[in-house]
């Protein structure tokens, strides 16, 4: 019985890849195959004319990029988006109120200025921002950085006043809080103006890429350290004790020391109110997280805590009866615009740069997350312009610097927000409170605001979970995280950010100077080449070493590249030259010894030669002191013994110095090369050529080849024929070059 085997229909035949072509080198590619286009370089005048060219389409594109609201507002789907934006705007606005009041305390300014900062910037971002979901306004990290600058420039000691207490000998020292707060507001406003100018200029100069230098581990370590600073700064409000506010290096340690040294004067009522508020807020946040899919909108725990604590404070007169610190005066209405005091600018430049960069990096990172989730794009340069305008314009209306808030942005997005109409409605909620009912929050205990701030830090403290994750994935990124955290905690946020940024740049330099270098081998019957130490099927080509290093070649690592090349291949031209010189010296020494022996016994040599001439035999001295005798059959049948001399005396001694005759440099991962790197490579090629080891280059990109031509790399010992488009091309060329010549029999 015959059995028929049917092929499995589920397994399609493998996709074959067959290419048959000559072996290409760069000389052939550049002159015969590719034919580069001839492009005449443009003059500066032509470039300016192209950039400054104006048309209706160009003007429209510029207007739409500067005012992104024009791209989506005309086609706003009212039926689909309006209800979601309405609910989201109200939810975010209700959350914006207590956070604005609380974060003003971090900025060391009266709480009402937090409300101003929650209105004007949000209104402006609606028109100029490209993100549809982030919530602009006060943020803990930025507020704390502002507070550090403000306290440094206007410390309490500047406003100490001594007052007589009945007699000339008894005096009481107190702080003029009105003058102090007014001075601090001026400093915060000027700082915000400068932050806005820096962001605006960076945006107009298309410097949106600066955020890439603040890598994610750096930002997360920095924000975690900021959370530690914020938590420590709120301890005194939670406990109801009076301690000075510190700034600069070791300010966190000084603050903790001051709190614990005065902890015996804790106001128990203040602690109870703050503790209850923290428990309620934590429970509400936990409920929102557990039932976020069932709840139509999150429970507004913060506004509930604010309203209830305000009511209790007003009903029980906590301020008068229990000495609980409250918000006190909140003026109704908006203040008229005023020009900041620019005489304060010189002392604030460094701080403003740090705040501008941190604020932008926080905003753009969150904006990109939401844009990726909802399928639209954000423009980093326009985001810089938008934040710059929000800070600069709003500073004339007495605000402090802002950025986006993670917690509010999550609420705005999760409650159905689709556009910045939600942000516009949130700003209207804040405006309503400022204009009409701001006085209601005057009895609000400060400990309740401290509780709001502390509970909102839970998300940042969860970033400590990054440490074990980074330990498993990347030790270098873990080092960046830890350096950013420790430096920011100990040195302060401004110096800590500078140290962390410097360390991140050093880590990049370290990676370029510590690349992975391997020797490649060919996978049998393929054109693939892999690390011979890692893959069993990869076998080295006889007499050929293929060197691969995953880094570019420039002044900082060119020496390291060459050292790795010599170490991995085991072929050091200096060492081989030393061996060659030693052999030459040995050859000369042996030749001299033979000549001296010949001079000592001329008669004996003469007799031997005479005897040999009579016998028809010739002798020739060859290297090694021996003689070679060759028998030749004469035409008459006699056997004649002859001796052949070698081509040269060095042939015997100067055999191949090592089994490797060819090196191939795989430049597939090389992105760029500078003049120092090019000179180093040319020098090592020349050194290898002196010891009969050929060097070829493979896998260069066209951009890299253009750089090499600009650097005049293909001169002297280096020619375009030594460069191949792939490693396999180079290997095939080397094999044919070193193959023994074919001997053809002549009939």
UniProtKB/TrEMBL annotation:
For this UniProt entry, the molecular function terms from Gene Ontology, in alphabetical order, are: secondary active sulfate transmembrane transporter activity
Q: Tell me the domain of life.
A: Eukaryota
A single GO cellular-component term on record: membrane
Q: Which UniProt keywords apply?
A: Membrane, Transmembrane, Transmembrane helix
Q: What is its main location?
A: membrane
Its membrane topology: Multi-pass membrane protein
A single Pfam family it belongs to is STAS
Please give the start and end residues of each transmembrane region: 101-128, 134-151, 187-214, 263-283, 295-316, 353-372, 384-401, 421-441, 448-464, 479-510
Positions of the STAS domain: 534-734
Q: Where in the cell is it found?
A: Membrane
- Full protein name: Solute carrier family 26 member 5
UniProt source species: Oncorhynchus kisutch (Coho salmon)
High-level lineage:
Eukaryota, Metazoa, Chordata, Craniata, Vertebrata
This chain is encoded by the gene named SLC26A5
